[in-house]
Amino acid sequence: MSKEILKQLNKLYKHVEYYNKMAPFPPFCTEWQQNIRDKINEIKMEKKDYDKEPVFACKHCGTLVVPNQYEVDDDGNEICMRCGSVNEAIEYKNIFEYNKEQKIKPKY
Ligand SMILES: [Zn+2]
User: Fold this and answer.
1) Domain total for the chain?
2) Distance of CA 58 from the midpoint of ligand 1 (Å)
3) Ligand 1 center to residue 42 CA distance, Å?
4) Best exposed site among 19, 20, 28, 44 by fewest CB in 10 Å?
5) Is 3 a residue whose pLDDT tops 80?
6) Above 70 in pLDDT, residue 107?
7) Residues 28 and 19 sit within 8 Å (Cβ to Cβ)
8) 65-106 pLDDT tens trace
9) Is residue 106 part of a domain?
10) Which structural domain range is residue 87 located in?
11) Contact assessment for residue 73 and residue 83, using Cβ atoms and an 8 Å cutoff
12) Under 8 Å CB-to-CB from 95, ≥6 apart: which residues?
């Protein structure tokens, strides 16, 4: 249950964690790193099958939108934590459709 979404989120988390550890200054927001960790734990605790749930991903870098990943500015614009693009999230029916349809593969 929720196997595929966890696989994708763990990949994203490892990538963010690695670069935040290696670089003298964390290139990614450490709060975002924590949000991804929290989301993974939340999915593990819930009985719900998250593999059947819709997912959102950034159109430009292909990064999955973890709730709270997008930082909303004062005008309500959503900013991608990875590439900084604004209001560019697309919805997929589920994680499998994301894997299949996604044009740009995230680099991790
Ligand atoms: Zn992005």
Assistant:
1) 1
2) 5
3) 23
4) 44
5) yes
6) no
7) yes
8) 886 456 677 888 888 888 889 988 888 999 999 998 876 666
9) no
10) 3-101
11) no
12) 4, 5, 8, 50, 51, 53, 55
